[in-house]
Amino acid sequence: MRQITLDEVVSLLKENDDFLILTHRYPDGDTLGSSYALCHILRKMGKKANVLIDGNLPKLMSYLADDYEELSFDPSYIIS
């Protein structure tokens, strides 16, 4: 498996649209915080992005999704 560089990741995010961000099973605060932060940044860049949580958003961390609204689109890229 080939590893990609940080510059390649940045280029991919800048040059493309329609991202689906996945969390791992039973997501913790680090996973949820970074997922929603990345989604927010991508949307600020004019991209379409959604976060898909495996299961339900834990009540204790629901504030992380206060301003989140799921968009309707077919993802071109999946970030995991």
Give me some keywords for this one.
alpha/beta; 3-stranded parallel beta sheet; 32% helix; 80 residues
Low-confidence stretches: none
Note the gap between the termini: 16 Å
Helical coverage, percent range: 25-40%
Helix-strand makeup class:
alpha/beta
* Adjacency order of strands in the biggest sheet: 2-1-3
Please provide the count of β strands.
3
Strand content: 5-15%
Describe the structure.
This protein has 80 residues and is α/β, with parallel strands linked by helices. The chain is built from two helices and three strands; from the N terminus they run αβαββ. It has a three-stranded parallel β-sheet, covered by helices on one side. Strand 1, helix 2 and strand 2 form a beta-alpha-beta unit. The longest helix has 16 residues. The two termini are 16 Å apart.
Structure in a nutshell:
This protein has helices spanning 6-15, 29-44; strands at 19-22, 49-52, 77-79.
Task: Describe the secondary-structure layout.
Elements: H1 6-15, E1 19-22, H2 29-44, E2 49-52, E3 77-79
